[in-house]
Design goal:
- The chain is α/β, with parallel strands linked by helices and 236 residues long.
- The strands form 2 sheets. It has a 6-stranded mixed beta sheet with strand order 2-3-8-7-5-6, with helices on both faces. The chain has a 3-stranded parallel beta sheet with strand order 1-4-9.
- Helix 4 packs across helix 5.
Length: 236
């Protein structure tokens, strides 16, 4: 079965992104300088916009085995829902770490008290997943740029690609999503998330990918809901 027949959307499909710097030769020497195996060239960065497809969006996103995928967006935009429903291997979701700690702590203890422990558990789990060398799908709130730098370094080290899936929903939709899950963020924190996600979204819409990303895919709520699998294959 071909990717087109199965509804899959391969990582090789999309619109080439505009480079941050003038293009350079990508021969074996240049690839080795970026941490890629000799004889393997880095793919040209791509932007794929799957928004406003009116029911014709992709059902599957397929990346190359060993690649890293970051799912980002506003709190309440549906990142955890998408990971639970579609991520091959289950993904690395900070919400899972929070749920585990919520089950251990007395109800009288506010989340702010043990938030550092939740984050430590999340990043420790991510570190273990990265050290395994396997493909990884990870939840990212968008405000921690050091996390993407970490993932970009790991992708370069293993000669793989780092791919961004960015959920583009309105603040009102995100707030509604927070209410539905019964768990929100403060106005200050939400404003910080809005600024960070908006910066990334504007840059990607102009064809400017975050540093180290091989591709970016823009999803609205309908496109995210249409996805049934975010997976990996040796040949894409």
């Amino acid at each position: 079965m071909t990717l087109q027949q199965s509804g899959a959307y391969p990582v090789t499909a999309g619109v080439p992104a505009r480079p941050r710097f003038p293009a350079r030769a990508a021969g074996a020497a240049g690839a080795a300088g970026r941490g890629l195996p000799a004889g393997r060239t880095a793919p040209q960065p791509l932007v794929r916009d799957l928004r406003e497809r009116q029911g014709h969006g992709a059902r599957t996103l397929v990346f190359r085995g060993g690649d890293l995928v970051v799912i980002s967006g506003l709190p309440g935009s549906g990142k955890s829902t998408l990971i639970r429903r579609a991520a091959e291997g289950g993904g690395i979701d900070s919400q899972d770490s929070r749920d585990r700690w919520d089950g251990r702590m007395p109800r009288a203890v506010p989340y702010a008290v043990y938030r550092p422990l939740v984050r430590l558990a999340h990043y420790a789990g991510l570190r273990r997943a990265l050290r395994s060398g396997e493909s990884v799908i990870v939840h990212d709130c968008g405000t921690q740029s050091w996390v993407r730098r970490w993932l970009a370094r790991e992708a370069r080290r293993r000669g793989a690609g780092l791919h961004l899936l960015l959920l583009d929903v309105t603040p009102e939709t995100a707030r509604a999503g927070q209410r539905e899950r019964g768990r929100g963020v403060s106005g200050y924190a939400f404003a910080r998330h809005r600024r960070a996600v908006s910066r990334i979204l504007r840059a990607v819409e102009r064809g400017r990918l975050p540093a180290g990303c091989a591709s970016a895919t823009l999803l609205d709520r309908a496109a995210a809901s249409a996805l049934t699998r975010i997976g990996f294959a040796e040949q894409v």
